[in-house]
Amino acid sequence: MSLNPKRAVAELKELRALTADENGAQRVAWTDVWLKARQWFAAKVKELPVEQHHDAAGNSWVTLRGESEKALLIGGHLDSVPNGGWLDGALDELAGLEVLRRIASEFNGRPPVTVRLVDWADEEGARFGRSLLGSSAFAGTHSIGADRSRTDRDGVKLEDALRRCGVEIDKFPETEKEQKDAAAYLELHIEQGPVLERMGLPLGVVLGTKGVERHNITFQGQEAHSGSTPMNERRDALAAAAKLALEIRAIAKKHRDAVCTMGSVKTFPGIVTAVVGRCEVTLDQRDLDAGVLAQMYREAQEASRRFAEEEKCTVGWSRLWNIEPVPFHPQLVKMCEEAIRETAGTSHSMPSGPLHDAAEVCRAGIPTVMMFVQSLKGISHNRIEDTREEHLEMSVAALDRLASKTMDWIVKQR
Ligand SMILES: [Zn+2]
User: How far apart are CA 81 and CA 88, in angstroms?
Assistant: First the structure.
């Protein structure tokens, strides 16, 4: 049986018919539709000479034993956001299955290295607000202490939702044993952004996932009557914040792939007849280079102090969250580039703005790389999410080439 990329696309459509309604995919983790998707997938896998099991965090593993215990890992996630797209996460999984079929057939069920396909549990964090739940348990970077009491919109606790699916949160640390013999990790994903489409390219190699600095910034001025306070005597907190909102664009534009976003602005008292006395904003800064990220953070702080002073206000910062950039393995990046060039003619290198399970696997010290396939209009987490079928097929073929190269590489590592 040779690789059949068309079958992967047909199976993606089958999954969509099974788990989507008129608003999009409904495979939210720890729900019945998600369990149904996993059952459907398990039935497909049964035809192969493999072992299947769920680990302590509910990640689903399919293992094709090879001559060597050293394992090539290929991963994705069958869960989706509510009203999600048909490709986010599922493409990785169905493409991985097709590659696994080809490898099983080519080597008569016994490839030179072990090949494992993983379906990460709850990549999206759509229900409880904790993304990368399963892969963080794998990597040993989980935060069960803080996560167990998270609740969904109906007040259901995360701990209880997991138990219903046979997962005990206290056993999460046991998930780390799945790292044993993992020699490389590959993940194919839709880009979820507009870059490849704009460049007219089907595929790109992902250099790593960007680090994030996320902060609350509060400008403090003086509430005052909007009719009686002369313009030059105001201490307008919103004016200072607005200057910063423009400045962060200039700060980001100095670097090729950096992004800065002020996503939330709250004004107090927030009424039409008062000068804003306090303004709270959020800032999210991302880049693949830790030095660039630190510099952008510094520049934003300096700018905020300058604008506060200009508007006779004060400013305070508090960190909401941050994560270091995660650069992928240089050797795997090179092989991914070759696989793409051999499949599509041209390749493009880019960082990923969104986080992916691959970042957690990489943080666990396992050589990792990701491949992106073009997203139409750059839209994802939405039922209109789409990619041209010929590009989907190319992505399956390129992942297959990359898997072969990586298996050879693992053999040589011994
Ligand atoms: Zn995804």
Answer: 9
Compute, in angstroms, the gap from residue 123 CA to the centroid of ligand 1: 7
- Tell me how far the alpha carbon of residue 165 lies from the centroid of ligand 1, in angstroms: 21
Residue with tokens 């907190």, as numbered in its chain: 237
Calculate ∠ Cα 132-133-136, nearest 5°. Answer: 75
Report whether 72 contacts 332 (CB < 8 A).
no
Q: How far is the CA of 124 from the centre of ligand 1 (A)?
A: 7
Residue 414 has what pLDDT? 61
Distance 273 CA to ligand 1 centre (A): 45
DSSP state of 259: E
CA of residue 277 to ligand 1 center, whole Å: 41
Ligand 1: distance of its center to the CA of 353 in Å?
Answer: 12
Residue 82 CA to chain centroid, in angstroms?
Answer: 16
Specify the pLDDT at position 307.
98
**Alpha-carbon span 365 to 133, nearest angstrom:** 18
Structure tokens at 178: 């799945």
- pLDDT tens profile 91-108: 999 999 999 999 999 999
